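Hey all, sorry for the wall of text incoming. These are the two entities for the joint prediction.
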Amino acid sequence: MAITYVNIASITIGSGGASSASFTSIPQTYTDLLLKASLRSTRSAQEDGFAFSPNGAGATFWMLLSGDGSSTSGGSSSSLGYGSSFTGRIPAASATSNTFGNLELYLPNYSNTANPKGFSLDAATENDGTTAYISLESGYYSSTSAVSSITLQASNANLAQYSTFTLYGIKKN
Amino acid sequence: MSDTQTKIVVDCSTGVIEEVALTAEEIAERETIAQAFAAAEHEKEVAVAEAAEAKAALLAKLGITEDEAKLLLA
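and here's what came out:
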């Protein structure tokens, strides 16, 4: 069964950055949603947190598994219940110049109104330094409302210029 | 958070992209997000410090150095 990917919309952050990026009025005609991003924060550090909010709501709940590639404290961590406030890490202003991390968010059955919506997310920072991160997450949006908007933002600063976000609709033929 | 408080919004039904100012509620949410990140960072730092402390205590108990411990595991 062929699967189609349709580019619903894209956002590129312009000069000066922006606090967040939002996709609104998402069509309810696809089976799943896939968001792909290339992004960086303006925070004065090697990394920043990343957060996404479906429908602008805070009533979310998910699990996080994060790997830390630090040369001095390499390891992994897992946490439960971060809510919509923290969803992995992205490179920031002190990471290698002009490099961007990548992130992929998958939301199956986003338009159903019977059950909470599960999701998976993976992200990796890019940094020619002593520390880099990879984040693997799963969880669910604890609402029966269909997902009609998604807001994406860095935890402590602006999304940097040239950060890009593309939302795909996936439909089974 | 002294950065410009604006967001880029794309209406997927029309493709129209706008840059709009954050509402007071959205600004408050950003503060919450920053606080959550700080809490997570603190939690991580505590875990790293506790692990290092436990490691040092075990090495002292065994009476060997970290390099000697690595030799045992090689």
